[in-house]
Amino acid sequence: MKLRYRFGLLAALFLAFLVIAPIILLRTLGIQYDWQRHTLVQTGSIIARTAPRGATISLNGVETGQVTPATLSFLLPGEYDLGLVKSGYHTWVKHFSLESGRVVSAGPQNNPIVLFFEHPTETVLSTSTISLVSEGDNRWAVEATTSLAILNLVTQKSVYSAIQDKTSEPVSCSASGTHLFCHVGNNWYMINPDTGQTELLILHSIQPKKIVALTPVLLGLLDQNSTVFFYDVQKKLATQVTNRAFDIVLGEDSLLALTASQLLSIKPLEGQPQVLADGIGEYNQGELVPADGGRVYAILDDQLVSLIPLRQNIAQGVAYANWNKTDEGLLYGNENGFSLWSARSGSPPDEILRSSVPISHALYSDATKLAIYRQGSQIKVIEAYETPARNTITLIDQADNSIVSFAIDRDLKILFYLLSDGTLVKSEIR
């Protein structure tokens, strides 16, 4: 090859290097030329993770050839519709506005997007269930057969109580600590749901509307006349401790009582109750919201407030509220919708859902960052984390509107729902 051709080839290679090298360098830095804007821009990325893995990823209706978990990199700023498809599961689609240089997680921070079965596997557990009861991570079904039976929904183990031939009488049950408290006819019973051991509470003229277990042998009672008692199960003895109370809950080391103007801490074997908050205000009814970390919240009439550590008004128009220990927040709402408020950040509440169709009591799953609720004949789940738009999926649809109540397991993998005819169904939703 002649010398001038060699120089020509080297010059061409050098020019190609001068052109290609900056392009490679800019791409490495996440910078591309935007032909629509005719300028260099910093690209962005979308991180997509799912549970389970292996969902096919599409952008704006076009498959990317990737499956979850994956990071979609070098995306120009703009509008994107991210789709996740896995056979046998509900399709997940969401719109994103990707800004220059941003890395966006498609799901909740440090959590995958949960995919749910299109057709859950369902099993009928009982045809004689009268109520579902929850306490912490425990879930029970109360069944009325020849006697009152307790089905542990977590272990699927049933035990029979000593309450015989009472199935024709009105029955209502609640849980506190490790026991169930059932009101059958005119009597109250304390039942160990693991063994079925049953204790008849001799209350004489006391008519409780709420029972709280401080220990297996010491109970707090709130009666129909707003009087609070301690009840010794072994001695079958009730001792009055205060009156004019709206509600009682178990505190960290005492019984908390909300009266007409004060929040009281009442300890067994001590004399005068301790005033934790005074001058709360005027209201006609009140309900305490159990929390941890020394926090105390309440619904006064329809206003959700913080009583301890600081007196703070959180929201109005509130019918219920649940404390979430992991995320340190309150899920609260009414039949028209619900919101999430973070005690950790103290920022304004985040409205999760607003609807003209009545909504029943919503529950929050900290494992998935989702909220589940009943709306008419359907049980739905909605994203409760910060996101541009919230996806909603219908998990159960009973056309006859016969769902009475429901319960979920800790990981939101199993849903239990009770129908009006006493049928209890276990649904494996993911």
Automatic annotation (TrEMBL):
Residues 44-105 form the PEGA domain. InterPro entries: PEGA. This is PEGA domain-containing protein. It comes from Candidatus Doudnabacteria bacterium RIFCSPHIGHO2_01_FULL_50_11. The lineage of its organism: Bacteria, Candidatus Doudnaibacteriota.
